[in-house]
Target: ABC transporter permease
Amino acid sequence: MNRTVLKAITKKDIKDIFRSKTLLLTIILIPVIFSLIIPAGVVSTILYFDFELDTGTQKMLDKFLLKVGNEEILAFSLKEQLVYLFVNYMMVSLFLLIPVITASTIAANSLVGEKERKTLESLLFAPITVKELFISKILSSFIPAFSVSLISFILSGIIINGLSYSTFKELIFPSMNWIVLVLLLLPMVLILTILLNVLISSRVKTYQEATNLGGIIVLPVLGILIGQVSGLFFLGLGLMVILSTIILIINLVLLRQIAKYNDRHLLFEKQI
Model:
């Protein structure tokens, strides 16, 4: 494998991201919304505004607490319980939207973007294998998307701990749920999102088509969020490990599929 060529294409693609106003706006706006605005708004509302729960809402909260199975949270006040549940469970699925949306936007532009910039033909006939081309596109999507996710994680911690420290008298972020999310589940979800979008981008003719099809990947994350809000399940440590294992297997299958994709003429024809 030609690492020099891989590095050159990856570096070029990352530079192209910062030249695109659409991609750059997505990379900035999505993390700001999901790692700053929403956490700050929800935590501030819970901690600094007085409210009472009606009987139905209180029963739902009690059901949530039983599902969590964390004895520590039972000793918290109502506001502390609500903040703890939001930060360590609800926000986890919200946070997953950052890498999914960011990676989808970048990866969808990977090959079809080359066509629209009229650089695909020269790239396909360059001294590089199709496998190396795909790997470079995967890397150029993974590096910025994962970097944005890590920065968002740090910013979320600063906001959450800054707002809640006076109430909890300790740092509540990150919990073990968040550590497992960032180190295990998030990379797996990110790779899956990129692999699917790169494959989609290699088969469609316009960026709009690629983003429309790639947007479907957001639906499972929304399903996780709805499942948690409804109390159907909580994205705890065990479930995150199970999901990570399943997604790892899917990723390996997709990688094998990409490894077999070695006909540059077929790839070129699909982009005409």
Q: What stands out?
A: The mean pLDDT is 79. The chain has one domain: 3-270.
